[in-house]
Amino acid sequence: MSARVCAAVAALALTAPLPLFAQEDTRGFLRPLGPIAELQRTELIWATILILLAILPVLLGVPYILWRYRRGNTKAKYRPQWEFNTKLEILMWGGPTLIVVALSIWLAQAVFRIDPYRTIEPEMAENMEFEMEGEPVTVDVIGLDWKWLFIYPEEGVASVGEMVLPVGRPVTLRLTTDTVMQSFMASGLSGQIYAMAGMVTQQNLIATRPGATLGTNTQYNGVGFAKQRAPVRAVDGDAYEAWLDEARDSDLALDDETYAILAQSGGLDRARSDLGVAGEGPVRFTLPAQSLFERVVARYMNGDAVAPEAQPGSPFYDPEAHVLPPAAEMTMEHDR
Amino acid sequence: MNALFGRLSWSELKLFETFTHGWSIDTLVAAGAAWAVVLGAVAVAGWLTWAGLWGRFWRDWLTSVDHKKIGIMYIVLGFVMMARGVAEGLVMRSHQATALGGGVLSEEHWAELFSTHGTIMIFFVAMPFITGFMNYLIPLQIGARDMAFPMLNQISLGLTATGAALTMISLVVGVFETGGWTAYPPFTGAAFDPGPGPDYWVWAIVLSGFGSMFSGINFAVTIYKMRAPGMTYMRMPVFTWTALCTSILLTFALPPLTVAGLMQALDRYLEFNFFTNDQGGNMMNYANLFWMFGHPEVYILVLPAYGIFSELTSTFAAKKLYGYESLVLATMSIAVISFAVWLHHFFTMGNSATVNVAFGIATMVIAVPTGVKVYVWMATLWGGRIRFTTPMYYMTGFFILFVVGGLSGIILANPAINWQVHNTQFIVAHFHNVLLPGLIFGIFAGIHIWFPKAFGFRLDERAGKITALLWIVGFCLTFLPLYVVGLMGYPRRSSAFDDPAFLPYMIVCLIGACMLAAAFTGLFVTLWISIRKRDELAVPMGDPWDGRTLEWATPAPPPHWNFAVIPHISERDAFAREKAEGRPYVLPERYVDIHLPPNTPAGMIVFVTTTAFGFAATWWIWWLAILAILVLVGWMIVHSFLDHPEVVIPAVEVRRATNVWIEAIELAGEGVTRDDEVSPKNRGYASTDMLVAS
């Protein structure tokens, strides 16, 4: 049986009974939509199996020892002065050391392979055996209280409360917030990464099959925290283009003024009512200027104080006071 | 704002929240908790007055510098705070069982609950418990009369109590911080939370942090300088070894936390920008400082529990500890490596792959000495004669559950997996899995072992065993399901969920939480039953468990001066050897006067002034803050000019007390065998199992 089959069987055994009843999009990385989450699941399973080697002696040995050496059992040999055995020492120190060495090699391989900052390229696709084609997609993610804003700068659209990605094309997320620290995770696709005001973090991922997962904030950021979950949908190329086209037809333009209103604390429903958009669910915008993300980052980095009134998420926030620096003044580093 | 009361107003008082905010389960819980604190304090004060015990309470406890009494006060403080922590846990689990799309509590209240629960359980339950044990046991195990700095010891207790008091006051006046026990800025910064909550947190943590650091210095110096003659490092009991490692960690790990807290205070009060969004602030520096404390803290807490497990296995298996050298080496390795792993709390920060790999591997390396410890305890039981007393029940629960916590720990050490489960319920399951079986089971086992030493009678075994089983089963039900929902990506600190599939898990958690609450009550039922049966359970001769270390060679409770004469140590587990060779309890040839440090109100003065300062700074009552500092500094100056004559216990008195004890033992003739260990025949004079074998 190849390692791959082993892993599949083990995956089934480990995960089958548990999230069976869960909704499709909340099964997290136990039901991966792409190679990164898949590798993470494989790591989880193999690490568990290997560590079991170290803890099974305890789980089985302790009950045995307790029973055999109970005080009432006069047959067991009592050795009150026994305190050292070289072979046992070697086993005690050597066993866990070997396991840790194995796990460490594994760990290093996995981390270098799926480092969130590593762009998905053909070489990686070859090593990890997945298909990729088409132009890379850039999505800029801004964490607001308590909703995610997804900006597609190259496509000239933006979306609040939903991210749609094309299957098979590599995606680079650039993340920041315009409030307190948050952490973005679309667990069916990849792990999480922090997002902080004035700073840019990165997450590269790719979906290899269509499906939905949840884009969750996992870093507590106030009373609407539990509601900050946006569906992340991986769809085929045509559906993706159709979705973008619909967004380009939106009546709403994400200009500075609209952004300042959108940024204030509140969930998706609140944003809809603030913007005067009827209905419910995600909202799509056209994007007048490509540089919104850079300007949101830059507003904290120009050396001036940003008053609480100008910081979305603050109880003092006033959309009138929210000023974005002009695009010309921006400086931004893309490296870590 | 006014000069007299700062930003404090009547509306901050939460006692009448049900009237001011309307009736709901939420306000009822909030007001109920506030009343519980007030009535609890009034009841204790009323009882002391009614029984006329204020004088004795002051002389014998509050102003005492006796390490044994300070140790007991730490543990009592831990239990008082644990009552609140457990109640909060129960309330949170009730909320989560109703959290499908909502929940019974308000969002603000929920946030306050998970923040206070974490803060209290770590800083004001776990820390007082381990500090209490170290206080009680270190001098007795190394053959000393007290700590190196007895007054500083009392001041440490005062500062810890200050932190606890501030969190209790926040239950009645105002709100506590709402960003979790880690209190990450900028959420807790002035721009996002100007209210009193983060200020309560800052002062509670900073002030008690000083106390813990002082404790660390004090214990380390005591172990370095005050060991009885002949007690070399490699002859020290293992608990003392773990205490030494913990003391070193306390000394070096607490300052980053205190500094981070003070930097946060500067941000909040004086508009500094260490951790703000703008002007170059960087919240990741806070994360680094916090976890430079936070990770060693885990080992600060768990190492003394390892010490207790080591003493426990060899005592109740009636056998020498297997692999003492390995255990010492493992303990020291853990202490050292624990400083090199803090970054695994934020693999998700955007570090380079190389950094993540380095810290991931460092984290896994810690599993090696930890694994060795578990194997060493198994080897200690091997070839023993195991008695299934209550501590052994806890030990068994520890063995089985702790390795599961170790398993999830190593899973978490892998950044690739960590990116998925960080900040989810998986983490919640993991650290409860390590701290409950690892630390709290150790503490409760330790209480069963050393309670008879401290109070002169054993705890009831039947009630103790039922309680232990409740802890073990309750733990499994409450926390193991969280691993599953964590893997499915349910974030921690989340007040609600949308997926009905989580509901069954949450209901199991609630059932478990009810069992844990019952288990906590069980501790007091055990105590109550034991007090009622105290004559039957009395072990005045001091050695109920056939103990191996020095503290068992004293009466129960030990005299203020611990040892009539300072013993000379010739080997490890000297008392066990003396018993095995049939020559324990030798009367000293010569008695001398014993000099002991005098009582002092220092701890109380520090407690009152720092609590006043913390409260005043939280509410911007500047005159009170300044007054508190002036009183404290003024008292320090006055204190340094006063004479502090030592208390002298005359040699005659020491001889008399010792003779009473030894005569009782001689009168008893035969020691009690281990068959009668938990019967009324056990008066604390042990006929050792070791004798039969050697």
Explain what you see:
The complex is a heterodimer of chains A (336) and B (694). In chain A, 35% of the residues lie in helices and 18% in strands. Chain A has eight helices and eleven strands. The longest helix of chain A has 34 residues, at 35-68. Chain A is elongated, with a radius of gyration of 26 Å. Chain B is an all-alpha fold and 694 residues long. Chain B has a single domain, classed as Up-down Bundle (Cytochrome C Oxidase, Chain A). In chain B, 66% of the residues lie in helices and 1% in strands. Chain B has helices at 17-20, 25-50, 54-62, 67-97, 107-142, 150-172, 197-225, 238-270, 283-316, 324-337, 353-381, 390-413, 415-421, 425-455, 461-487, 503-532, 534-537, 574-580, 602-619, 622-641, 651-668, 689-693, and strands at residues 594-596, 647-649. Chain B has a two-stranded antiparallel sheet. In chain B, helix 5 (107-142) runs antiparallel to helix 6. Chain B starts with 16 loop residues before the first helix and ends with a helix. The mean pLDDT of chain B is 94. Chains A and B meet through helix 2, helix 3, strand 7 and strand 9 of A and helix 5, helix 11, helix 12, helix 13 and helix 22 of B.
Strand % of chain A is 15-25%
Total helices of chain A: the number is 8
Which architecture of chain B per CATH?
A: Up-down Bundle
Instruction: Let me know the CATH homologous superfamily of chain B.
Output: Cytochrome c oxidase-like, subunit I domain
Question: How many individual β-strands of chain A?
Answer: 11
Low-confidence stretches of chain B at least 5 residues in length (pLDDT < 50)? none
Radius of gyration of chain B (CA) equals 25 Å
**What is the CATH domain class of chain B?**
Mainly Alpha
Give the amount of beta strand of chain B, in percent.
under 5%
Largest sheet of chain B: 2 strands, antiparallel
Helix content of chain A: 25-40%
Oligomer state of the chains in this structure: heterodimer
In the CATH hierarchy, the third-tier topology of chain B is known as Cytochrome C Oxidase, Chain A
- Dominant shape of chain A: elongated
Number of helices of chain B: 22
- Main sheet properties of chain A: 6 strands, mixed
Mean pLDDT of chain B: 94
